[in-house]
Amino acid sequence: MTDAPRPHIPVLLEAVIKAVRPAPGQRVVDATFGAGGYSRAFLEAGAEVIALDRDPTVQPYADALGRDYPERFRLIRAAFSELAEVLADEAPVDAVVFDIGVSSMQLDQAERGFSFMKDGPLDMRMSREGESAADIVNSWEHGPLAHIFKLYGDERQSGRIATAILRRRVERPFERTLDLADVVEAALGGRRGAPTHPATRVFQALRIAVNDELGELARGLEGAEAVLPEGGRLAVVTFHSLEDRMVKNFLTERTGNTPGGSRHAPQVIETRKPSFDLQFKGSVDATDEELAVNPRARSARLRAAVRTDAPAWGRLAA
After folding, report:
1. Which residue positions form the known binding site for S-adenosyl-L-methionine?
2. Does residue 121 form part of some domain?
C-alpha cells in the first residue's frame, strides 16, 4: 500500500473506534474527512468508508486512500450539513462520525488565513467560497462585530476590539492575518504574560462566523439522525464548549433525557419517542498517554449514541 501523508494525529482515535465499531461489511460515513486519519482506521478495520469534505485541499489525502482501498473508499465534495441530501440514494449506513473544528493541517497552511501566528491572507474559508474573514472585518458594523467576538469567542473585550478594528480600517483595509492580530493585541494592551495570544478568541470567532460552523453542525446532526437506521452509531468529537454544548443538547433532547418540570405543574405529554440512546453518559476525554504524544487532544471531547427505531425528529423550531 502507499503511505498516505499524515500531517496530524486523529484525536481520541481509540475511543472513536470503540464507539463506531468498524468491521467488514459495515458502511461508515466520515463526515469531516480532513487528512483522513479516521477514514484510514475504519478502512484498516475492513469497513467501507464514504467521506465528506468541502475543503478542496484534502484531495491528495483522499487520492492516497483511494489508491490503497479503491473498492471501499470514496470522497464526496460536500459540506457535512448536506449529509442527508448527499446520501439520499445510498443504502443505509452503519455509522456517522464528525470531527468538528479546524485541523492542524489547515492551521499550518499560512495561505488559508486561520492562524494568527503565521502571516497570510485573511481568509479562513473552508470551501474557498463566500464571505471571507477580511470581508467581515472590513465591512461589518461595530455591533455585529462585537456580537460575534462575544458569542463565538467569549471575548470580554469584544466592544473595545471592534472599535479598534473600525478605527484602523478607515486608514486601510485589513488584508493579512498578522495585521489583524497586531491590532487586536494593541487594543487589549499587549500580551502581559498571557499564556495564549490576545487574538486567539477573535480568530476563533471569525472562523466560526465565516464557515457558519454552528449552523453546519446543527444541520449535520439532523442529517445523521435522518440517515442512520436502527442500531446505527453516531460519534462526535468537538474541541470547544460551543460545539460540545450543541452536541450535548441535541443528544439530551433526542434521548428523552430533558429535565422534568415541576410535579405541581400540568404534565406535558411528549409525543416524540427518543431517536437515540446514549452509548455512555457524559463525554470521553483524552488520556494522559494520548496528551503526551498529541497535545491537540487537550480540549477534545467525544459523545456517542445509537439510533433507535423511532422516526427522526427532524428540524425543530428554535
Report:
1. 36-38, 53, 80, 99, 106
2. no
**Where in the sequence is the domain holding 79, given as residue range(s)?**
13-105+213-307
Taking the CA of residue 251 as centre, how many other CA atoms within 13 Å lie in the half-sphere pointing to its CB?
Answer: 24
Q: Is residue 222 part of a domain?
A: yes
Q: What pTM did the predictor assign? A: 0.85
Q: What is the DSSP string of the chain?
A: ------SSPPTTHHHHHHHH---TT-EEEESS-TTSHHHHHHHHTT-EEEEEE--GGGHHHHHHHHHH-TTTEEEEES-GGGHHHHTTTSPPPSEEEEE-S--HHHHT-GGG---SSS--BS---SSS-S--HHHHHHHS-HHHHHHHHHHHH--TTHHHHHHHHHHHHHHS---BHHHHHHHHHHHTT--TT-SS-TTHHHHHHHHHHHTTHHHHHHHHHHHHHHH--TT-EEEEEESSHHHHHHHHHHHHHHTT-PPP--TTSPPPPP-SPPSEEESSSS-EE--HHHHHH-GGGGG-EEEEEEE-SSPP------
Q: Write out pLDDT tens, residues 20-37.
A: 999 999 999 999 999 999
- Over residues 130-134, the mean pLDDT reads 91
Q: What is the pLDDT of residue 296?
A: 79
The mean-pLDDT minimum among 20-34, 58-72, 156-170, 189-203 falls in 189-203
Bridge pairing between strands 27-30 and 284-285? unpaired
- CATH at 253: 3.40.50.150
- Among 158, 190, 210, residue at a domain's last position: 210
Q: Are 28 and 95 in contact (CB under 8 A)?
A: yes
**Binding site as annotated, residues:** 36-38, 53, 80, 99, 106
What total number of domains does the chain contain?
2
Does residue 4 lie in a domain region?
no
User: Are 166 and 294 in a shared domain?
Assistant: no
123 inside domain: no
